[in-house]
Batch of 3 targets.
Target 1
Amino acid sequence: MKVPPLAATLALLALLGAPAHAARPRAVGSSGLLDPARAEKDAPNVLRENNAFCKEPSRPLSFRARALCTVADRIPNCEGFTAACAAEHHAAMPEKPPEDESHFLEALKKILGQVATVVIWILIAAVMLALLFPLLRVVIRSRKDKALADQVEAPKPTTAVGTRPQADLLSEDDAEVLLRRAEGHAQQGNFEAALFTYLNASLRALDKRGAIRIARHRTNGEYVRACSETETKEPLYAIVRDVDRVQFGGAHPTPDVVARTASRATAIVRTAAVVASTLMLALLIGGCSLPHHGGRASDPAGHEILGDLLQRQGVTVRPLGSSLASVPLPDQAQAVPQTYAILVDTDRTPLETTTELHLMHWVRAGGFLVLAGTPLRWPDELGAEMETSTSSDIEVDSVSGDGEARTDRGRLVHPAAIRFKEALPVRVQVARTGDGKWYAGYQSLDRGQILTIASSDLLMNAQLAQPANAATMVSILRHLDRAELRLALPQDGISPPSNPITALERSGLGLALYHALAATLVLFVAVGIRLSRARPTPPQTRRAFTEHIEATGTFYHRRRAASHALAAYARYAEERVRQRLPRGTQDVGAWLGQRSGVSVEECTQIWQRATSAQTAAVPHGDELFVLKRLSAIVSLALRLD
C-alpha cells in the first residue's frame, strides 16, 4: 500500500514532537507492563513460596500485623497467623480479678507493691556500693603502697636482684604494663629481671581480682597458698618455683624458662578480661529476649508477596537503599528521565518536610511515585484529604493482556477513601470504593507521574494472600511504566544531617551541646581574664570638703543634734573672736556690731544664745537659725581685718 508523502511527513513530525515519557495519563483501560489476569494466576504460587507468615510468623506481632488479625480467618491454610493473633489477643486481655477478693487484700497488694519497690531500690543501691567498695579499696591500697615505696631507700647494686621484684610490685598497679616491661627485659637478654617482672605481673593481676592480697611481709609461697582461684594455683606455683630457684638457689634463667613463665603469666593476667567478657556476654544473652523471626515473608505486614507478583511480570523490585531526600534528580536531557519508580508507604515511612519537598521536586523532574497510606501524611502540595467511606470493597476496571475488559474486586481491612481539594484535568480515577468514592488516582505533574492509594492495606502480605486482592493491587499498578520499582524503607523518610551539629540535634543532644558551648565560653573568659595583662589600680579620688560638711549635717539632722552643732560652732567662733578682741574689751556683742554693721542688740542676743547652748540640751527649734546668723555676723566681723 502506498503512503502519501504528506501523511508520512505529518506522522514523522508527530513522533518526533511527542516525548517518550508523555506526561498525559494513559487511558484507564491501558494494560502497560502489568496484567491483572496473570497476577490472579500467579497468586497461589507466590503464596506457596511466601507463606512463612502463615506457618511461623515473627513474634511478637508488630502493630501493623496486629491490625491484620481481623482477616486471618479469610486466608486459607494460615493457622500459624491465626494462632499468633489469638495468643496476642489473650496476652493483651487483662486478667479478671476474683470476685471474692476483698478490699483488704487489694490494699495489702498495693502496700506490698510499694514495699517491693523500695526494697528493689535499696538492692540497687547496695549493688552499686558493692561494686564501688572494692574499687575504693584498690585505690586507697595503691596510694598507701606508693607512699610506702617512696619511703624505702634505693637498693644497693649487690642486692638489686633480691629487692627489685618487691619494689616493682608495690610501685606499679597495671599488670599489662608489667607484662610489657617483662617482654622488654627478655628481648634485651635480662632474663632475671624478666622472670621477676612476670611474677609481679601475675601477683598484681590476682590482687586486682581479689584472689590474693599483696603485702610486704608475705613470701611467694604464701601467695600460692592464699590464692583463692583453684585453676590459677598450678601455673602460679610453677612461676614461683622458677623464680625461687633463681633468687635463692643460684640458678641461671634460660630463654626456655623465661618463655614458659611468660606464657603462664600472660594466661593468669588476661584470664580476668576473658572471664569478664564471658560473663557479660552470658548476661546479655540471658537477659535479652530476642524477637523470633521465621525467615523471609514471616511478617504479615511485609511486602514480599507484592514484590514476587511484580517480578513474575518483569518488574524488578528492591529496596531504595538511600534516603528519599537524597534521591538524584532525573537528567532533563534524557528522553526517558528515570528508569525506576519509587513506592512510599507513608504509614511505614514517615516523611519529613525536607524530604517531601525534595520528593515532589523529583516527581516534577520526571520521576514516577507510588504513594500509599493515610492521605494526611502525604505532601501538602497534592491537596489530598481523607474521605469517609462505609464500604471496604474496592473495584478496579482494567483491560487484561489479551484485550478483554475486566473488573477486579478486592476487600480492605478498614474502609478508606481520598478527596482532592482541586479537580485537575490530568487526574484519573484508578480505583473506587463500593460506595463510589475515590480509592486510587493517577495524575501527571510536569514531567512526572504520581499514583496515589488511600491506604496501605493491599501492599501487605496478609492482604495479598487472598487471590482477589492480588489481582486488584496489580490492576491498580497498571499505569506503572518503569521496569524497576524501589521500596522505601521506614528510615528512608528521614533526611540525612547536613553537618555534625544537625546530627547531634536530631539525636537529642542539641541542648547539651549548647550548654557545653556556653560553659566553654565562660571557662575561656574566666581563665582569659586571670591571664590577661595586669592593670594598675587607680588611686582613690579625693572627695570635696563640702561633701563632708553635708554628710556631717545630715548626720546631725538624723540624730537630732542641733544643740550639739550650735554649741560646737559657738566654741569655734568664740576662739576666733577672742583672738581678735582688743585688750580690755569685754562686750563681745558691741564689738561684733561695730565690726559687722549689724545692730548691737541683735549681735548681743545671738552671741548670748550661741554661747549658752549645751551639747546634750533638748533642741528649742531655733538652733539652726542662730547658727546661720552667727556664722554670717562672725564672717563679716573677721573679714574687715
Note: Residues 500-531 form one domain.
Target 2
Amino acid sequence: MTTSKRLPAFIAAAAASALLITGCSAGGGDSDPSQAGTGGTPEKGGTVHMLQNADFSYLDPSRGFDGGVNAFYRLIYRGLTMQAAGDADDPNKIVPDLAEKLGEASDDGLTWTYTLKDDIFFDDGTPITSETMKFGISRSWDPQVGIGSPYLRQVIDAPEGYQGPYITGDLPTIETPDDKTIVFHLKKPFPEFDNVLAQPNAVPFPEGTGAGDEFIKDVIASGPYTLAEYTPGSSIVLERNEYWDDKTDDVRKAYPDSWEFEIGIDPATIDERMIAGQSDDQNAIAGTVSAASLPRLQTPQLKDRAITADAFCTTYMSMNTTKAPFDNADVRTAINWAIDRSALVNASGGTQLADPAYTIIPPVVSSFKDFNLWKSDGDKGDTEKAQELLDKAGLSDGFEFTLDIRSQPLMQGQAEAIQQALEPLGITVNLNVIDTSIYYETIGTPSQQNDAAITGWCPDWASSASTIIPPLFDGRNIFEKGNSNLAQINDPAINDRIDEITAMTDVDEAKTAWGDLDEQIMGLSPVAPLVFSKGIFLPGENIAGYYPSTSLTDLTIIGLKDPSKG
C-alpha cells in the first residue's frame, strides 16, 4: 500500500485511497486510534454515505491492494484472520475471523493449521468450506488476477511455475483434509503468518468463479454486505448480506442497512459538503480535509467534529535503478541531498498534515530507527553536497528525467516542490500525470514505469517492518504486474539480510534489525523519503463509531447516531 497498506495494486502500504493520502485526518481529539473517534454508539439502520474523489482500484480483492479499497473489502469479504476493530485497545492486533482461533504452527514453523467456524456462508447461501478458502487464496498466483497483496505468494510454498487454479489447477501445498480444516505449507518459517492471512486477497470464493474479468463489476460476498449497484467511476451501493450471521463475527458490527459511495467528486467540493453537513451529508464520511480548508475548521462546532489521525504512511519518490542515471547510487544520493523537505511538508498541507521523512519506516511502526543521512538546516536540503555527487558522477550540468504522478492536487504540489529543489542543479523534472484510478497499476508494471514515481506505503501490520522492507526492496519480488519494488533494486546484501531477519525468532531482535536495514538501504538511496502523512477527518454530525486512520479506517464499526435521519 497505502500510499500499505499498498499502495499497490499495492499500497498499501499503500495510499491511493479515499481514506488515505488522497484524503485523511487531523483536527481535535486524541491521536491514539483506540481513543480518537466520534462519540456514542451507533444504532442499527439507515444509510452511511462516503464521498470520494476516485473510484476504488478493484472490487476483486486479489487485484486491489491500497488503503481505501482494503477498508472497503472489510465490508464485503471475510478471511481466516483479520485486523482488530478500529476501536479496539490494540487496533493493529490480528484476531480470528472465519477461523475459530489463530493458526497452530508446527514445531518447525513450516506448517500452519486452521479450523473454520460453523454456519458461515456466501451471499447466495453457499457454505464457506476449507475448499472454497483454498480456492480463493490460490487465485493470488494467477498472472492476470493475482496482482494485489504479494505476501501469500512470498510465504506459502507452491510448485515451481504454479499459476493459480484457472491455469494450473490444484495447489497441493494447501491441504483440506475435511470441510473445516485447512493446512498451509510454507517456504520457510514465518512467525507472522496470521498477519499474512489477514491480507485482502486471503478470502474464500466458490470454486471455479472469478476467472478473467468476472469480478471487475460484480462480487461474491462473504461479509455483512453485498453489492447492490455499481456504476464505475460514479457510485457503489451495498446492501445487507442476509446470509451473514453476526454470531460468527466478533469484529464487524454492520450497523447501517446500506452504504452508498459517491465517486468522482472534486476534493474541494467534498470539503464544502462535509463542512456544511446538509441533508445526507450529515450521515457521510470522507477522506482527509484538504490543506486549503483547514483554516475553516476553527469554529467550535467544526472543531468538535474534526478528528486527528497520526502518520502511519510514508510518501516517497522511487528512483528506477535499472535506468540511467538512477543506476548510479551517487546520483540517487544527490537527489536525496537536494530535496527540500520543508517545501514538501508545505506542499502536503503544512505541519498539521505532514512531517519530513528521512526513513522509509514510519515512527508508529515498532521497527522505526531515527536516523537522517541527509541532514540539512531547516530540512531545506543541501545543494552543495548534491552538486559534489553529481560532479563525481560526471553530471555536473544536470540531466532530465520523467516523474510519474497521480492526477491529484496534493501529488502535483509535491512534484512541483521536487522540480524547484532540483532546478538549481540543472535537473529538469518532466511530469507524467496518470489518472488516479489506474495509477498504481501503471507504476506497478515495470514495462510502463518511467524514471521515477511519487507514491506511498503503509505497513500492512505495525508490529514490525516485515511488510515494508521486503515488498519495497527485495530484488526477488520484482514482478511484471503488481510490482511494489518500484526502484527495482536487486542487491544481494539486502536480499540476504531480509532472509536473515525474517528467520529471527526473537521478536525484539528482528525489530531492531529492520531499523538497521532501513538505514543500510537508505545509504544506497533507491528511494527518496519525502513526508510522513498525517490527516484530519471531518465526519458528518450524525456519524458514530468513526475511528479514522491514515492506515486503515474500520468501516465495519461505523453507523448513525440516529438512523431515522438516514
Note: Residues 1-35 have pLDDT under 50 and may be disordered.
Target 3
Amino acid sequence: MEAQPPALLSAPRMLTLVGSILVSLSSGTNYIYSAYAPQLGARLFLSHTQLNVIGLAGNVGVYLSGPAWGRVVDTRGPRIPLISASACLLIGYLGIRGIYDNGAGTAISFMHLVILIACTFITGLAGNAGLAVAVNTTAKSFPETSRGTITGLVLSGFGLSAFFFATVASIAFPGDTSALLLVLGLGAAMPMLLGLVIVRQIPLPPPSTTLGIEGGLHGREGYHPIPSGDAALFIHENDSHTSLLDPTELVYEAPNYHVPESSTAVELVSDRIVSRGSSAKRSASRARPVHDGPNVYGKQLWLTPDFYLIFVIMSLLSGTGLMYINNVGSISQALYAKGNPNYDELEALRWQAAQVSTLSVCNFAGRILTGLIADLIRIRLRLPRAYCLCIVSTLFVVSQLSAISINDVAHLWKATALLGLAYGGLFGIAPTIIIDWFGLTHLSENWGYVSLSPLVGGNIFSLLFGRNLDSHASDDDTGTHSSLPLVRRGGLPSERQCFDGRDCYVSSLYVTATACLIALGLSVWAGMRDQRKTTEAKREVVWDAED
C-alpha cells in the first residue's frame, strides 16, 4: 500500500515553505545595490552612468538567466541551482569587496570595471537560481486555492532581502561598506546550502471530491495528484444510455490520476465519462487525454498574444521600479545636498539607508498583500487574478507622480514606500498569473521567459536616469555651489555630485510616469480579456447525454 502524502499543514510542507522563504530572502540581494552604490562610486571615481551599468549587470544576470534556470528546475530539480547560487554569491560579492578595498583614492582601470560588472552579473545569476527553486517548489506543494497567498509569501522574502542584510550590516558594522559586502557574500550563500536539505516538493494530499455541474469537485470521491510532466488523464468515450446525472452509475476509467480542480475551466462532456453498464463498448472506445488546466510552453508560448501582453506590462512597470531602486540612493543625496551648506556625509548616508530600508520593507509587504488580494478576487469575487495588475499599475503611477512633487529628502520616503509596494505587488502577482494563463507544469521555464521583460524597460530607464544625472552633475564643476568644499571634505568626488535637488532627475520621472500610465491601460485590457476568456470557457461546460 502506497504511503499517503502529508497533510496540508504538516511539518514537511511547512518546513519546505520556511526553507523556500529563506532561499528567496537570500536571492534578492540585488535590491541592496543602491545602499552601497554611491560609496562605490565615490571610492572608485565612477560616474552615475557607470554605476547604473554596474547595477544593470545584476539585473541582467537575474532576468536573462530566467529561461535557463527555469528549465533546469523544471527538469532536474533544485539541487544544481542551489549549489550554483551559493557559489555565485560568494564569488560575486567577495570580488566586488576586493575591488572596493583596493581602490581607495584612485580611479579603477577599465579591466577592473569589467570585473566589477561581471561580479555583479553573477550575483544576479544566483538570485534567479534561488528564486526559481523557491517559487517552483512551493507552487507545486500547495493547492491552487492558496497559490496566490503562498507564492506571495515566498516572494516577499525576495523583497525583504535588502532590508534584512542592510540591517544586519548596520548593526554589526555601522558605516562599513566593505563589511556590508562581506555580509552579503557569506550571509546569502549559506541559506542556499541549507535549502539543499529542506527545500523539496511535497505531494498534495488527495482531497475529497465528486463531480459537480460546473466542473467543480465536491463530496467524498477521492483522487490522486497528477504525475509531474505531461501526464494526462485518459478516459474512454461513453456509448451508454445511462442518465448522465445519475451519480450512482458513474465511474472513472482512470481513478489513479488527478481530476482538475474546481478553479480550472474544463469541458465536461459525456464522452469523458463511462457508466458501469458499458464495459463491452468501453473496450473498443478511443482514449482521449485531458490535461490539468492550460499547458502552454516553448514555441507555443511565443505565439500566444497573452505572452506579449504580460511582457509589455512588466517591461514598463518593472523597468520603472528598477530605475528607482538602483538610483534611490543618488536621489536622496541630490535632495539632501541642495542648498545645504552643512553637508554631512554620515547624515547623507543615513538618509540613503532609510530609503533602502523603506523600499525593502514595502517591497516585502506588497508581495504578501497582492497574493492575498489575488486569492480574494479569485475565490470570493470570482474574477480573474489579472485584475490585480490594475491595482499594481495604479500604485506605480502614484509613486512616480509623488516622486516628481517631492523637493525635500525628509518626504522622499512617501514615494519610496509607494514604489516598493507597487514593485513588490507586481512580482507577487505575476507568477500566479503565469500559472493561470499558461499552466503549472512548465512554470519556471515560462516565468523565465516573461522575466526577460525587465531587461528592456530597466536598461532604457536606468541609463536614461544615469545620463540625466551626469549632465546635471557636470554643471557643478564651476564650483558655484557653496556646499562644494564641504562635499570634498566629506570624501565625495564633487564632480560626481549633483546639487540641483529635484531638477537632477525629474525629467526621467516624467518618462516613467508616462510609461506607467500606458501599463495601466494595458492592465485594464488584460483583466477584461481574461474575464472574457473565463466566461467563454464556462459556456463550454456541456453535459451531453444520449436518451
Note: The longest strand covers residues 217-222.
